[in-house]
Known about the structure:
By secondary structure, this protein is mostly beta strands. It has strands spanning 3-6, 9-12, 33-40, 47-50, 60-70, 76-82, 86-87, 93-101, 106-110, 118-119, 131-138, 149-157, 164-173, 179-186, 192-202.
Amino acid sequence: xxxxxxxxxxxxxxxxxxxxxxxxxxxxxxxxxxxxxxxxxxxxxxxxxxxxxxxxxxxxxxxxxxxxxxxxxxxxxxxxxxxxxxxxxxxxxxxxxxxxxxxxxxxxxxxxxxxxxxxxxxxxxxxxxxxxxxxxxxxxxxxxxxxxxxxxxxxxxxxxxxxxxxxxxxxxxxxxxxxxxxxxxxxxxxxxxxxxxxxxxxxx
Length: 204
């Protein structure tokens, strides 16, 4: 005879095997994250445009931007891509971002109406430091679906006063055309020294 402790009480006898098929409330149909694209930008490039990323194959996406270093202090900017290569540059972006700095000061930025691009971080990033951030995106299906919303968070070093900053942001894109990719570029005529981008897709 064996004793099994359950919340301080004893149960006499052997415990029957549990058939997993009888359990309810457990979701098993998430297929996991799949690597779609792994790209390293060439030093001296002023922008990178990635297309053919988002499709009906996956419903949810994670984009990792790793080791971003610009040639000069700048903002990181983004536009989305529709179709095969159409970069959306109209006043279709409403965004906000908020950061906490290592001296307990706060920093923020916002669109105040529709803009022609997204400012990813709320203050200027230094050129001698690296930035890392992760973006999440769920793809609306079909024209007339919910308009896409992007979310992101990460860390960078502010150019002024050398403040280490953690921040998060979101952007609403005023389009019902399905997104297929994005363009990442920099302000102040800066170019990229380093940047690796990984795009992962997940399907439920």
